[in-house]
Amino acid sequence: MTGWQPYWLAWRVVFFGTPETYALFTNTQHRLSWTIWAWFGVRQGVPVWQRSVMHLLLLAVLVRLLGHLTFGIWR
Fold first, then answer.
1. CA pair distance 75, 53, nearest whole angstrom
2. What is the per-residue pLDDT across 17-64, written as a single tens digit (0 to 9) for each?
3. Count of alpha carbons within 13 angstroms of residue 3, beta-carbon side
4. Which of 10, 19, 30, 73 satisfies CB 3.0 to 4.6 Å to 67 for a cystine?
């Protein structure tokens, strides 16, 4: 185990796990998924073309992230 592995684990717990757990027990609208739904207009009835553009953007980001983290592409 390198020194970076505990760092990234601690980062995930502190900067994701802690706020997400707190939001889960206090106000579910402050969770990450609700925030992303607000960004992409899932709950607000935005026009279909706008949702489609935002979904394509999200898909591109996720494909890039998957390729980078899984296969080491785009270093």
1. 26
2. 998 999 889 988 888 888 888 777 776 677 878 778 888 988 999 999
3. 0
4. 73
Phi first, then psi, for residue 47 (nearest 5°) are: -60, 150
What's 57's DSSP letter? H
Are 36 and 47 in contact by the 8 Å Cβ rule? The answer is no
- Amino acid type, 62: L
The H-assigned helical ranges of 1-75 are 4-12, 18-26, 32-39, 48-71
Confidence check: pLDDT of 1 > 90:
no
pLDDT at position 14 is 92
Distance separating alpha carbons of residues 62 and 68, to the nearest angstrom: 10
Q: How far apart are CA 3 and CA 8, in angstroms?
A: 9
Query: CA 37, CA 32: separation in Å to the nearest integer?
Result: 9
